[in-house]
Specification:
- The protein is mainly beta.
- The chain has a single domain, classed as L,D-transpeptidase catalytic domain-like, CATH 2.40.440.
- Helix content is about 10%, strand content about 40%.
- Strands 1-2-3-9-8-7-4-10 form an eight-stranded mixed beta barrel.
- A hairpin with a 2-residue loop joins strand 2 and strand 3.
- The longest helix has 10 residues.
Length: about 160
Amino acid sequence: MTEQPATTISIDINQQILSLFVAGEQVITYPVCTAKNGVGEAFGSECTPRGRHIIRAKMGDDAEVASVFVGRRLTGEIHQQSLTDAEPDKDWILSRILWLSGLEKGKNRLGQVDTMRRYIYIHGAPDELVSATPSSHGCIRMKNADVIDLYKRVSVGTVVSINE
């Protein structure tokens, strides 16, 4: 069996960019939007956690573009502007979910800093909410077409580094 080249993700908080690397070569970048509260690992902080993570789970294999998730389950709704207008402060989770788990004990894994228990994802969002101005509730937001493209390129276990 041929071993696949290593695929990794690097998220640059300062630049609001996610870069995908295959065998050490950058193959694509996407704009992202991280937390309006900045960086941090504490439970309840609504900050984006730093450090090394892995993709623990993927959700939404066959979901339609802009499908709405609540509690990691598809609701059957397709996001429209009227939904955002009705709930302007909601952190919409759309199209795909890449659920992250920290790899660094005491920094982003276990206890009060556990990324997975904080439900931190890379996920789709209304495209207009993916801007250079951090505004999420802790997750990494992506445009819907971008998160669908990324989802196809990565697997469970892919390493994700989140850095300032």
